[in-house]
């Protein structure tokens, strides 16, 4: 049984939160323990358990949990919906962590589309589909609430067409004409914000454009119903839904509802059945494409969507080339994986031709999921001496890599390989003919 819960002061976009509790103080579930700095972009953080503050430093607040716990929580005090969202500390729960009250803070003056991201874009993760399956009526209720908040004329739920059962339940729950469902292709990255807008609205935004440029606001599915909980029940964001998968005992993909934020990765693996073997590659927090390596001691945060215990890494040649895609692992992530695979030298780094560098150093794809070809990039890496390449490409980019790499006799590894192998899923290689 876990005793100490760590609450990181940075759990999304913006400035670190400022502690408002002291060491030795008794706290209740739902109590504010750190607040957004005055006048800055950030978020409030609340305790997810009953306990006593054990320590505070510049990174986290540690709370020692009481032996007895209760699902009851300290309710929010605001009255207006947007203020409740702000007070609750709700951020984008699809992984970005952008404060939701800012996104909802400018309602449409006329028209406007609320676009619900239910793509569950990353492979392996499936807690969003489970939620829809069990709570379709609440999803629709939540859509209506947020539509009212932002004065949206209509709402579109973007979901992969293969989820026929979930789509049927949503269709049965929708009782109005201005909420519709848009079926998406089963490929990565259908959940990327601009890809979703392109597919659902027919508008391809520039890499620097926000969804408002298409008269749209995009909300992740879990963010949507956490907004509803804050407004309906005055509940802070203290729990998280997630998938735990990979080399664990029993079923290798398991979903969990309302995991207290601050729970350790190790505790979640134990709850899922425990490690099936002591020999594994790594533990990922997030999904196979964009997740980060984590440890058993690391805490669940607001943006945690998955915990994956991967297969041991395949052995790679000594000289590796890296082909970086804006939609998957970045250069640093690929370097980390190459080292774990035993590569001795990175002989070259190439970027997908559509991976545009942003001012903050990150990259965005000009047209996510639609790849113009990677032949020149693969040839450059072969000429640099690469005995194999490690890629982080989307589904379509991987198609184009695999259209040329075999002919050039260049073996290909993908950043998702160890994770997908751990659950017996098809590797990201040539998906389409």
UniProtKB/TrEMBL annotation:
<keyword id="KW-0249">Electron transport</keyword>
<dbReference type="InterPro" id="IPR026902">
    <property type="entry name" value="RnfC_N"/>
</dbReference>
<keyword id="KW-0408">Iron</keyword>
<dbReference type="InterPro" id="IPR011538">
    <property type="entry name" value="Nuo51_FMN-bd"/>
</dbReference>
<keyword id="KW-0479">Metal-binding</keyword>
<protein>
    <submittedName>
        <fullName>Respiratory-chain NADH dehydrogenase 51 Kd subunit</fullName>
    </submittedName>
</protein>
<keyword id="KW-0004">4Fe-4S</keyword>
<dbReference type="GO" id="GO:0051539">
    <property type="term" value="F:4 iron, 4 sulfur cluster binding"/>
</dbReference>
<dbReference type="InterPro" id="IPR031001">
    <property type="entry name" value="PR_assoc_PrdC"/>
</dbReference>
<keyword id="KW-0677">Repeat</keyword>
<dbReference type="InterPro" id="IPR037225">
    <property type="entry name" value="Nuo51_FMN-bd_sf"/>
</dbReference>
<feature type="domain" description="NADH-ubiquinone oxidoreductase 51kDa subunit FMN-binding">
    <location>
        <begin position="85"/>
        <end position="228"/>
    </location>
</feature>
<keyword id="KW-0813">Transport</keyword>
<dbReference type="GO" id="GO:0009055">
    <property type="term" value="F:electron transfer activity"/>
</dbReference>
<dbReference type="GO" id="GO:0046872">
    <property type="term" value="F:metal ion binding"/>
</dbReference>
<dbReference type="Pfam" id="PF01512">
    <property type="entry name" value="Complex1_51K"/>
</dbReference>
<feature type="domain" description="RnfC Barrel sandwich hybrid">
    <location>
        <begin position="8"/>
        <end position="64"/>
    </location>
</feature>
<dbReference type="InterPro" id="IPR010208">
    <property type="entry name" value="Ion_transpt_RnfC/RsxC"/>
</dbReference>
<dbReference type="GO" id="GO:0016020">
    <property type="term" value="C:membrane"/>
</dbReference>
<dbReference type="Pfam" id="PF13375">
    <property type="entry name" value="RnfC_N"/>
</dbReference>
<keyword id="KW-0411">Iron-sulfur</keyword>
């Amino acid at each position: 049984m876990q005793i100490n819960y760590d609450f990181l002061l940075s759990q999304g976009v913006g400035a670190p939160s400022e502690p408002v509790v002291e060491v030795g103080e008794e706290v209740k579930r739902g109590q504010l323990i750190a607040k957004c700095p005055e006048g800055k972009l950030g978020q409030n953080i609340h305790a997810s358990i009953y306990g006593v503050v054990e320590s505070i430093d510049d990174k986290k607040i540690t709370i020692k949990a009481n032996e007895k716990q209760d699902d009851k929580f300290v309710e929010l005090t605001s009255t207006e919906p947007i203020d409740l969202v702000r007070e609750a500390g709700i951020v984008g729960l699809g992984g970005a962590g952008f404060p939701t009250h800012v996104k909802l803070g400018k309602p449409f003056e006329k028209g406007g589309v609320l676009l619900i991201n239910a793509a569950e874009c990353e492979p392996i993760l499936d807690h969003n589909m489970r939620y829809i399956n069990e709570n379709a009526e609440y999803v629709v209720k939540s859509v209506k609430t947020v539509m009212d908040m932002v004065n949206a004329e209509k709402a579109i739920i973007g979901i992969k067409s293969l989820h026929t059962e979930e789509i049927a339940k949503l269709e049965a729950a929708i009782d109005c004409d201005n909420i519709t469902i848009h079926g998406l292709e089963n490929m990565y990255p259908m959940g990327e914000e601009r890809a979703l807008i392109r597919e659902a609205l027919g508008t391809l935004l520039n890499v620097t454009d926000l969804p408002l440029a298409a008269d749209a606001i995009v909300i992740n599915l879990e963010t949507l119903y956490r907004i509803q909980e804050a407004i309906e029940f005055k509940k802070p964001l203290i729990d998280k839904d997630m998938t735990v998968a990979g080399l664990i005992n029993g079923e290798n993909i398991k979903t969990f509802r309302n995991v207290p934020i601050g729970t350790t990765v190790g505790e979640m693996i134990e709850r899922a059945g425990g490690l099936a073997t002591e020999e594994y590659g790594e533990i990922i927090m997030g999904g196979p494409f964009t997740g980060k390596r984590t440890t058993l001691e690391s805490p669940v945060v607001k943006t945690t969507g998955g915990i994956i215990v991967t297969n041991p890494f395949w052995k790679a040649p000594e000289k590796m080339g890296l082909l970086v895609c804006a939609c998957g692992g970045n250069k640093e992530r690929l370097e980390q994986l190459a080292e774990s695979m035993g590569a001795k030298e990175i002989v070259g780094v190439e970027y997908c031709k559509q991976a545009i560098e942003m001012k903050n150093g990150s990259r965005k794809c000009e047209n996510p999921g639609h790849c113009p070809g990677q032949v020149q990039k693969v040839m450059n890496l072969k000429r640099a001496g690469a005995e194999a390449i490690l890629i982080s490409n989307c589904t379509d980019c991987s198609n184009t890599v695999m259209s040329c790499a075999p002919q050039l006799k260049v073996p290909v590894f993908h950043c998702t390989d160890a994770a997908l192998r751990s659950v017996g899923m098809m590797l990201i290689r040539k998906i389409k003919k």
